[in-house]
Design a protein that fits this description.
This protein has helices at about 40-60, 60-80, 80-90, 95-115, 160-175, 190-200, 215-225, 240-250, 275-290, 310-320, 340-355, 390, 405-415, 430-435, 470-475; strands at about 5, 5-10, 10-15, 20-25, 30-35, 120-130, 140-150, 150-155, 180-185, 210, 230-235, 255-260, 265, 300-305, 360, 380, 400-405, 420-425, 445, 465, 480-485. It has about 500 residues and is an alpha/beta fold. The protein folds into two domains: about 5-260 and about 465-485, Aldehyde Dehydrogenase, Chain A, domain 1; about 265-455, 3-Layer(aba) Sandwich (Aldehyde Dehydrogenase, Chain A, domain 2). It starts with a strand and ends with a strand. This is Aldehyde dehydrogenase family protein.
Length: about 500
């Protein structure tokens, strides 16, 4: 018998008025559990609870806030054995990914912002002699810039890394003294719901962290439009992000938007065998890392003409070596995508590229696996930059390869989409790569690596988002600057 979950509001479970919807395992197509369908009244209840609790939490000693977040990190680790199977089942991620990069990363984010709660929130400014004016007498004027909590944060999260993404929003928000109302992605909200009781056990006061769920877009719309919400932090598609930004703008809510990406991996002609190997491995992560369901993925590989065939051959070899199948099997590298709708969407892009004259070098046909929403690792060549498959985010295990002649052409192609989240440059000359990075309209650039640095500001240019989080920048994202001025 599958479990049915309620909303987590004001420190306890609440049975939904409208009932539940099914959460489906992408690999087995079986029901994992049932999540609650929120009503406007339930969204309002969560916001009201957060509003009532926020003032007290904001005045809590930062050392106490740090202790709660540290304890939460411990609890995620302690409960990992029971959380991991649920998280794996609802996301369809491989068990290896779930156990090494989902729950441990979520725990580390709470631990990082436990330290963040203790970071100085006051920036002292040098005293300034000011002449008298009709407004006030002159004198030596002192001042400080102080980070204050925004208030109630609505956190709307993505389906690819649900717990990691929620931890990355809630932890810095809580560290700064905000209250949170979270709305996880409808496809896999169940493990996110488990964070509510764990935070209560960690010592978080009731009402400071609330979770509502819903399969309908109306749930998120109610949260965005509620006058008691001061800020919306959203991770998801650019199309939905634009709708949220428009709605939030009506009441001047603060927004933090991490939206889509169409990452370009530029392989320059001077790349040696070591650099080429790094490039192939980085681009291959589109297939091997959560079936390409990651916004930072280098889904376009742009290769200077002399190396094009060599890189394409390396990618073909890489893709054909990957094991597709049951994500619970430790030998599996490529599991399913999140849903039948997403599988069909990715397949339609591949079919469109074929119809436009592109050639499918690897994959391109549905794997002979049932049940499950599987997409084969696919490499598309003979692609032109104007094709939809080279311009739009697919969110699946598909790579397009495009040759270029000069750096100017590479920059033109890389910058030629509406996105600008994460690009990569591969070159034997890192100074050359550094200079090229300055020309890319992208919030993040990796040089000879797809590895991330946890303290860097993360976010995008253009339609890939607004604002930055990560490291101490996450504390800035969930705070307002207040200037305090006094007469010496």
């Amino acid at each position: 018998m599958t479990a049915s979950y309620g909303h987590w509001i004001d420190g306890s479970w609440h049975s939904p008025e409208k009932g539940h919807y099914a959460v489906v395992n992408p690999a087995t197509e079986e029901v994992v559990g049932e999540a609650a369908e929120a009503t406007p009244a339930e969204v309002a209840h969560a916001v009201t609870s957060a509003r009532a609790a926020q003032d007290g939490w904001s005045r809590t000693d930062p050392r106490r806030r740090a202790a709660v977040l540290n304890r939460m990190a411990d609890l995620i680790t302690e409960h990992g054995a029971e959380l991991a199977p649920l998280l794996q089942a609802e996301t369809g991620a491989t068990m290896r990914l779930t156990s090494t990069m989902q729950l441990p990363t979520a725990a580390e984010r709470f631990r990082r912002y436990a330290r963040g709660a203790l970071e100085p929130a006051v920036v002292p400014l040098a005293p300034c002699p000011v002449r008298g004016t009709p407004l006030a007498p002159g004198g030596l004027i002192g001042a400080a810039a102080v980070r204050r909590p925004v208030g109630v944060i609505g956190c709307i999260t993505s389906y690819n890394f649900p717990v990691v993404n929620l931890a990355g929003k809630a932890a810095p928000a809580l560290a700064m003294g905000n209250a949170v109302v979270a709305k996880p992605a409808p496809q896999d909200p169940l493990t996110c719901l488990a964070l509510g009781p764990l935070l209560r056990e960690a010592g978080l006061p009731d009402g400071v962290f609330n979770i509502i769920t819903g399969a309908s877009p109306a749930t998120g719309e109610e949260l965005v439009s509620h006058p008691g919400v001061d800020m919306i932090s959203f991770t998801g598609s650019t199309a939905v992000g634009k709708q949220i930004a428009e709605a939030a703008g009506r009441s001047m809510k603060r927004t933090l938007m991490e939206l889509g990406g169409k990452g370009a991996a530029i392989v320059l002609g001077d790349a040696d065998e070591k650099v080429i190997k790094s490039a192939v491995g980085a681009v291959g992560s589109v297939w091997a890392f959560h079936s390409g369901q990651i916004c930072t993925a280098p889904t376009r590989v742009l290769v200077q003409r002399p190396l094009y065939e060599q890189v394409v051959t390396g990618l073909q070899r890489y893709a054909r070596a990957l094991t597709i199948g049951d994500p619970v099997d430790n030998s599996t590298v490529v599991g399913p995508v999140i849903s039948a709708v997403q599988r069909d969407r990715v397949e339609s892009y591949v079919a469109g590229a074929r119809a436009q004259g592109a050639r499918i070098a690897v994959g391109g046909t549905r794997p002979d696996l049932a049940p499950g929403f599987y997409v084969a690792p696919t490499l598309i060549i003979d692609v032109t930059p104007d094709m939809a498959v080279a311009r739009e985010e697919l969110f699946g295990p598909v790579v397009v390869a495009i040759p270029f002649e000069s750096e100017d052409e590479a920059v033109h192609i890389a910058n030629g989409t509406s996105y600008g989240l994460y690009d990569y440059v591969f070159s034997a000359d890192t100074a050359r790569a550094w200079a090229l990075a300055a020309r890319l309209r992208s919030g993040n650039v990796g040089i000879n690596t797809a590895q991330r640095h946890p303290e860097t500001p993360f976010g995008g240019f253009k339609e890939s988002g607004v604002g930055r989080d990560g490291g101490s920048f996450g504390l800035h994202a969930y705070s307002e600057l207040q200037s305090v001025v006094w007469s010496s």
